[in-house]
């Protein structure tokens, strides 16, 4: 019975998602049953939509910049957290991890107030990047904490004893060992930034990110099938990234010689 | 300062300064802002509690804040109740080497665009939507149902779907940590399967359940997209109101006040919950 319930629950989870490809290939502008036949014209329309391409490029730029910066900050925070003892560590880590337990609208509002009312900045993709780094860093720290935790400190000590400098030890010993964690943190941060809407909605200027652009499309019924086609592509891309991340995680576990204890996150 | 402390402090400095500059300072700014008032086009910087009084007395603000908490509470209860059996099944009835595959299957739908997932619920629940088409097609109903979209129920259903994996994963982790020999001991001592569940499994899974409750409750209170898409006018929540004050209504100080009030309510509820479970755990 429990198995039947779990399968029913999975159907509930997948039901809305499965509509994406159905309506992306449906030859009609009304999103309703019965279907009107097969077409690929919505995908062709995606191909020629310049605004969409611009939004996609914006989102990719924001996601790349945010994930790289968040992972750099995450490496520093996780390393300090696992390896060193110093006064105020709990409070400092608490503040760094705080965005995990704050509703995103609060982060959006607070940065908007500072950017516009206090600093008088023009909103741009950089304000979005600054905010995304803030919300991605805790995820990067959580993943990298685990990487540094499973790192054997005696390997670093041995390298130092053998005459490596601290910089060389980090580059040649530590970095390769935590690389799977870094890749996982990059992928997670990239995906979070790419999909994030409310903060980008508050903080973008004239250049929309992809979610902000999709939001504007949702108001025009004629464009909905195009959005469905776009959604189908995004779904395929993010599932590919997810499979890549899972593969990378398992490879990391094998390399560290640890038993598989379930999925990431 | 010894070397250890200095190295740790140097490493933590960049992420800490970033969080101070882009989180602590902005939150402080919102707090200061919430005591100012909007005077048509200019902001009056005399500190006053006027906005807070308005938030506490104006029926619109009170209704929407109360509704946000009630909707999030309902979403939390529904999500955790629906998620628990799934986590239990995967932890107790799935072969160990298959567990990560099941978790993978559960998380996959949540890596499609959040906006589109919410929008797809509108497609599911709408007048010409999937559910209505199916029911009329099967001859169960004559007229499409109209009470399933643009109200608080639609918001609860959609958010429960969106936050399902965030409830399943922490409960699963807590269940995985349970030493299976404790369950055997309980059975050997004469408890039935049901009493073992309530007296051993559930108390041991409680930390996961609490984590799930917090992970679902905190972000849903501030959700903007779902009420805006499927909520209609009776499903509007606090985030929509906050956004309106920063956008069309042009009353940023009031928006700041509402943000502070929302954040304070969430924090108080979350802390009360954690405190209550500690108390409960200590009394046992």
Describe the structure in your own words:
The complex is a heterodimer of chains A (265) and B (284). Chain A is built from eleven helices and no strands. Chain A has 265 residues and is mostly helical. Chain A has a domain at 37-98 and 134-198 and 206-255: MetI-like fold (Orthogonal Bundle). The two termini of chain A are 28 Å apart. The mean pLDDT of chain A is 87. Chain B has helices at 3-34, 50-57, 59-93, 99-107, 114-125, 130-137, 152-176, 180-188, 193-221, 225-231, 238-246, 252-283, and strands at 37-39, 42-44. Chain B is mostly helical and 284 residues long. Chain B has one domain: Orthogonal Bundle (MetI-like fold), CATH 1.10.3720. In chain B, a hairpin with a 2-residue loop joins strand 1 (37-39) and strand 2. Chain B has twelve helices and two strands; from the N terminus they run αββααααααααααα. The model of chain B has no long low-confidence stretch (mean pLDDT 89). Chains A and B meet through helix 1, helix 3, helix 4, helix 5 and helix 6 of A and helix 1, helix 3, helix 4, helix 5 and helix 6 of B.
How is this fold's topology laid out?
The complex is a heterodimer of chains A (265) and B (284).
Chain A lengths: L1 H23 L16 H8 L1 H34 L5 H9 L6 H15 L6 H25 L3 H9 L4 H30 L2 H6 L6 H8 L6 H33 L9
Helix pairs in contact in A: 1-11, 2-11, 3-6, 3-8, 3-10, 6-8, 7-8, 8-11
Chain B lengths: L2 H32 L2 E3 L2 E3 L5 H8 L1 H35 L5 H9 L6 H12 L4 H8 L14 H25 L3 H9 L4 H29 L3 H7 L6 H9 L5 H32 L1
Antiparallel strand pairs in B: 1-2
Identify the notable features of this structure and list them briefly.
heterodimer, A: 265 residues, mainly alpha, MetI-like fold, 11 helices, B: 284 residues, 2 strands, 76% helix, globular
Summarize this entry quickly:
The complex is a heterodimer of chains A (265) and B (284). With 265 residues, chain A is mainly alpha-helical.
